[in-house]
């Protein structure tokens, strides 16, 4: 059973790209709180967060591409209604 993602057992779950977007938003919010802090540690954390944001953006694009691929091949997911997965085992 998945904890966060949509599945037959978890029809109230989220699409991967939605979770990644929420994480990106949280990190952006944190960045705005430290952007004016001139200490070396804050700068280091901000630099790391910027790299993480780029990686999250890449991951969002990949997740959206997977969703689009599945939508084209098999139509919309029925997982939110407790339906079977479009690929793989139930």
Task: Describe what you observe in this structure.
The model has no long low-confidence stretch (mean pLDDT 93). With 90 residues, the chain is an all-alpha fold. It has helices at residues 16-34, 40-74. It has a domain at 16-73. The protein has 2 helices and no strands. It is elongated.
Question: Can you describe this structure in just a few lines?
Answer:
The chain is an all-alpha fold.
List keywords for this structure.
90 residues, mainly alpha, 60% helix, 0% strand, elongated
Element layout with pairings:
Layout: H1 16-34, H2 40-74
Describe the global form.
Answer: elongated
Q: Please give the count of helices.
A: 2
Rg result: 17 Å
Oligomer: single chain
Roughly what fraction of the amino acids lie in strands? under 5%
Please write the string of helix (H) and strand (E) elements. HH
Assign the structural class, choosing from mainly alpha, mainly beta, alpha/beta, alpha+beta, or little secondary structure. Answer: mainly alpha
Describe the main β-sheet briefly: none
pLDDT < 50 stretches: none
Tell how many strands the DSSP assignment holds. Answer: 0
State the helicity in percent bands: 55-70%
What average pLDDT do the residues reach? 93
Distance between the termini: 10 Å
């Amino acid at each position: 059973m998945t904890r966060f993602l949509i599945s037959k057992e978890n029809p109230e779950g989220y699409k991967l790209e939605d979770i990644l977007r929420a994480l990106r938003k949280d990190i952006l919010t944190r960045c705005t709180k430290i952007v004016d802090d001139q200490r070396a540690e804050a700068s280091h954390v901000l630099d790391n967060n910027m790299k993480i944001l780029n990686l999250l953006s890449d991951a969002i694009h990949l997740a959206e591409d997977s969703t689009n691929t599945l939508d084209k091949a098999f139509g919309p997911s029925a997982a939110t209604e407790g339906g079977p997965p479009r690929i793989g085992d139930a």
